[in-house]
Sequence to fold (680 residues):
Amino acid sequence: MTAVAETRPQAGAFKKSGFRPDIQGLRAIAVLLVVLYHSGVEWISGGYVGVDVFFVISGFLITTHLLESLERHGRVHFASFYAMRARRILPAALLVAALTVLAAWVWMPPLLMTEVVKGAAAVALYVPNMLFAVQGTNYLAETAPSVFQHYWSLGIEEQFYLFWPAVLALGFWLVRRNERRLLVIVATLTVASFALCVVGMHLSQPWTFFSLPSRAWELGVGALVAFLMRSGPRWLSLPRTGLLAWAGLVLILIVAVSFDASTPFPGYMAALPVVATVFMIVGGAVPGNMNANRILSIGPLQLIGAVSYSLYLVHWPLQVIPQAAVGADSPLPLWVRLLLGAAAFPLAWLLYNYVEGPARSWSLLTQRKPIWSGIVAVATSLTVILLAGGTYLSISRTVLATDRTAAQEAITVYPAGTDYVPANLTPELRGSMSDNPAIYSNGCHRDVSETDASGCRIGANSEAPLVFLFGDSHAASWYPALEQLANDGQIRLDTNTKSSCHSVNVAQMLDGVEYTECHTWRQGVLNRIDVEQPDRVLLANYANEDGPLVGGNQNFPARWQAGLESTIRAISGPNVDILADVPNHGSTPAICLSANLNNANHCATVKSMAFNADLVRADQSAAHVTGAHYLDLTAYFCNESLCPPIIGTTLVYRDGHHLTESFSRQMAQPLLEGLSASRK
Fold:
């Protein structure tokens, strides 16, 4: 038998870029995870990591291209690079953005158009991720997401493409064209970004999630893989290295089904899908049959991978706009969401074949100087902004009320509600979200970063009982009613409220990190109560399990009750009232009303669904155990079956679960009667 020498690729065999079917298949897997996740497939609870897969792929491919340019020419052709990126990314993205604005104008409630316009402008200016970071959006838990929210990842990539060529070109010049030294610079930047991502999770989860500095490491890891492939180490050519692709595929699938909205993300947890993608890129480059290329190269995955960008763009509006049209309180059934997800595929095929693909090689631009691609990109972006602005102006002129007026009703129990939006509604729908208590503008309500527990006091009658209001923004919602009582000389009021901070003694999370400012402030208020000894302490809080606790929300009602009892026991001397929480509509009634002017009860909430029964029982049990008084004014908000959004001429809620200033003030007398009854 004649021995046959094993043929191995020499160093540098992986140096040149070229089409890789395995990466195309990897794109397909990534986008399928995202589409299925957004379509409500519960067992793919971590499908959002598909975006992280895309980041690594993008970093790998773009760095490979730039390193080849540096090797061949010693520099980067910036104008040509940006022109190619613009033709590759912007035509499909901006067309979908424009069509999304038009679809939102037709089907979404008018009051949502302000957010649509903001999102469209951010997309056209290439900063959607920064908009959502500023707004503090929680991508994994958002109940009423922006129709442009999926563009955040596109913003990250666009901003990365803006800076990365300059980083590599400058680094290449500084290290005197030594690629290994340039690798050290890239590795250092990647590690720094990863460290920022991990530390940032303890500062602000939204900023960490959406900002380029804290997510650039994922593209940077892809860049490091590009350096690795170009160096051509011997182990990279061994057939068994192809097993990495299988390991990576298995790891991605494990992450996709094990991660969920409660997973701290991105942070160090994002390293798992990133490493899995690295394994697949490295393993897929090895010749032989030991990698996963046969699966990744099958026709359906190749087709989905080819249209993956277009599919990513179109799938999200198909989910969000129909949901907004029927109302956030009526979740679309899974079969409808799956049909919408399926509908994204033919639309993506059309977008790819008639916009995305042709735009890359459009002769009117490819045969001209690169600046013309930039001019067309700017002009198209301005067109989207003008379209969004014009749509908003059209909506802003729409009258959001019927031509009928309503009679002002005295506050009474079991209100029937007004079944239309009256012309004399107070506040008007458009201004309802800013109908806030004065406690926000006079500096008495503490923001999330504040720990000042000094409070604010009003009421000139020195003989009136001193009442401490203690709680979160739901306590602040009762300020107008209590302010009215103080101005009438019925009480003296000392306000102690702080955003997203319960007076209940539980360790809370905020934006993915422990809310230590809340604990400090709460303890400060308790200390002041102990010193000043008011006549009554009124506890009011947002009783909902959506607010995360340190360590997770397991046994939430029991922990809530224990925390409430702890707070009450820390109040020695004053009488304590636990004010029952107001109905939770889940979404802003004014948005629903703007699309249902003649059927306001369509926007009412079923009474049994408006309260968390377990937390109601927890409040009642805590009152019973500690001897506190449970003050329940629910009958003034709900009749036997519904909690109407409009009572008489007054809009009750400024969002899903906060009272308008106008309605809160009308509750002064019922609140006084409730407080008086508790003294008997």
Observations:
- Confidence is low (pLDDT under 50) at residues 1-13.
- The chain has 25 helices and 13 strands.
- The longest helix spans residues 78-107.
- The two ends are 106 Å apart (CA to CA).
